[in-house]
Amino acid sequence: MASKCPVDHSESQESCPVDHSSQSSSTWTRFFSTTNKYSDHNLSSEREVSTIPKASDGNWVYPSEAQFFAAMARKNHNPQVADMKTIVPIHNAVNERAWFEVMKWESGRGGEACGGVKLVNFKGRPNDKSPRARWKMFLGYAAPFDRHDWVVDRCGLQMRYIIDFYTGRTDPATKNVSFYLDVRPALDNWEAVKMRVETFCRKWLGSSTTQS
């Protein structure tokens, strides 16, 4: 049986809707407020295989339009059939972007020695603001509309990554919604501390040296 995708964070982990709370639900409803003029159309049952490797064999598999719709309906999020053809591809693309950002952190850390870094598990924490998110909110920035914690395995070392999801500017011409993902290793161990310090030095001290 195919495994579920990394953005599903309900207790049962049966499907993969991005909205995991009333707060996230209202945000995504605002993003995708199309009418239900295609409500009599059947939803696709086809599932897309992600590029995200599992800790066992194969890759994680995203939910189909039908599964996504059913999961949202079970949570009383009032899904619209017409929205599924928009939400599902964006949901999948956002997850691929999250994995891309994780792999940027993992690059050169030795994961290739054992077949590559793999996603072990995941959890949605939309109501738990990370320390960085709270700091940004204190400075006046908008709060993230969702948060995920992903645990990856790097040759036996498990690293937890925090992913804060923010909304970007909406294109006035196309009405397309943009997203910003703040991805970084959680400070659970010295390896994460070292990664964060090295990245800070490379980003800020390195740029200062270049300018001087």
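That was protein one. Protein two is written in the same sequence-then-structure order:
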Amino acid sequence: MSGELELPFRLDSQLTEVMRLRVQSLQQRGQKRQDGERLLRANEAVYRLDFSEQSLRFSHWTPRLAEAGRLTVTATSQLWTPDLTNLMTRQLLEPAGVFWRAPGASADAAVQCYDADAHEFGERIAELAKVRKVMYFLFEFQQGCGPQTVDCSITFVADS
């Protein structure tokens, strides 16, 4: 038996704040990041995806951008344990999902994406779901979009 399972990406405000404090702390002390460390940028936030099931096949993305802008979603590897270690560049997975709404596009126009990359990214997330209950993602907001104007989910087919 199979059924569709839509999982929303949820802002992890606590982890985002911890990562922002790391940047602030380094700046205040005049220190540099660790070699290979990936610091959170001002236009980024950490989101999480909680898997209620592990046996999943990617179906499709449902990004919603209320206005023109660009959203880049980058996954972190299962090796990153945010409560124990800083995020390292090598722990970011490729490809990233890039979604955008062009300026002047009608409100009912579909959000655009690089289809092949988005599909490969979705399949990779489904593979990682087999070994993870939670995954973390960096959402980078560009060209006018932000957390208030973006809603994103991913749909899988659950194999039972």
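The mean pLDDT is 93. Keep this in mind for the problem set.
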